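FORM 7B: Structural annotation worksheet

SECTION A. Query
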Amino acid sequence: MSTNGRNTSEILEALAAKATGRVALGDLVASLGERAFGLLMLIFALPNAVGLGTIPGLSTVFGVPQIIFALQMIAGLEKPWLPQFLMQKSISAEDFQSIVTKAGPHLERIEKRLRPRLPALTSPIAERVLGVIFLILATIVALPIPLGNWPPAIAMTVIALGLVERDGVLVLVGTLIGIVALVVALAVVGAGVAAIWIAFTWLLRGGT
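SECTION B. Predicted structure
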């Protein structure tokens, strides 16, 4: 199901075409404020999903709003909201256009295969449950985990696209990707903690 007769990729292309100077997060929320949370979660997941999370601070700039949106989904709010200090955060129009350009072809290929399926997975009740999943994945994205923001961003992109297009099958696929992303993130963190502990005990023994 498209939004107002337009596919998700077409909506993003229209936003990118109008972007000039810098694009504030508040402008994105304002332009999509009456739409479902799914579309905003998709837009805020895309920078990390297309590999731009390596830009210093970008993963946090987009990850923190996702945490806030996820909490609002869990609470059952109908309209997204961000605090003023986050509304003023921005990226350059060139970066935003680059995100849309990189994601566009992939979204278009996926959209050709989408259709309303498994409505229970895109219902208002399901959106609250998915808010919990978004909260976990968005927290991982916002944390400084080496190479840890890409898999959860992919998962959130897939889930969000499924919500927008009312395709429960895609929501299910995205949830499975999210589980894998969580396992990977926990493995990375576990390996890091283990390495620190080994180094600490080695130092306690006097480096022998």
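SECTION C. Observations
The first strand starts at residue 22 and ends at 24. The chain has one domain: 8-181.

SECTION D. Sign-off
Analyst initials: ____
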